[in-house]
Amino acid sequence: MTAFVGVKQELLSVAELLNLIKKFTIEPSYYFLRWNHKVSNNWRQEPTKDDFPMLEGQMFNQNCELRWKYKHKNSYEVLLLSVAGEYSDFKPVGKDWETQDRNAHLHSPTETRFPKGFPEKESDIAQRYFIDKQTSTVHFVALTIKQ
User: Fold this and answer.
1) Mind listing the pLDDT tens digit for each residue in 55-93?
2) CB–CB of 88/11 below 8 Å?
3) What is the pTM of this model?
């Protein structure tokens, strides 16, 4: 597994973002979408154009986590955290990454710190730490699915 962290240099339209999400989707993949007033309530449902605009979201599976964030005029910034090698259409962030997978501890769906609609716990979710090899600093914590 080759760890890779990268960003899209250009902002993506909704249509471009949806195509990119499809490119990285494998089974199983989970999707977590955030708006001002709620979060998605079905982690298994792929986003559609009707879900936009949203503030931010993420898609994750065993290979990667793809994050997007609203920038302006219905365009989105995109970050990729992957263990499936490099992607030439993403600008690398940093050089040498190592990863560590750890168990995730999810809060109860009734926890008051989350907006209404927080989904039920998924037992196969884990965390993947992206660690800079030179400094041993954890820069990103991605969601992943246990293998």
Assistant:
1) 999 999 999 999 999 998 889 999 999 999 889 999 999
2) no
3) 0.88
Query: Buried (b) or exposed (e) across 82-115, using 16+ Cβ within 10 A?
Result: bbbeebeebeebbeebebeeeebeeeeeeeeeee
- How many distinct structural domains can be found in the chain? 1
CA 96, 99, 105, 106 dihedral sign is positive
- Domain coverage including residue 115: 4-145
Q: How far apart are CA 47 and CA 57, in angstroms?
A: 9
Q: Judging by beta carbons within 10 Å of its beta carbon (0-12, 13-18, 19+), is residue 40 exposed, middle or buried?
A: buried
Given a cut of 90, whether residue 16 has pLDDT beyond it is yes
Judge contact between 129 and 99, C-beta under 8 A.
yes
Strands of the chain, DSSP E: 4-7, 12-13, 30-34, 56-60, 64-72, 75-82, 91-92, 97-103, 125-132, 138-145
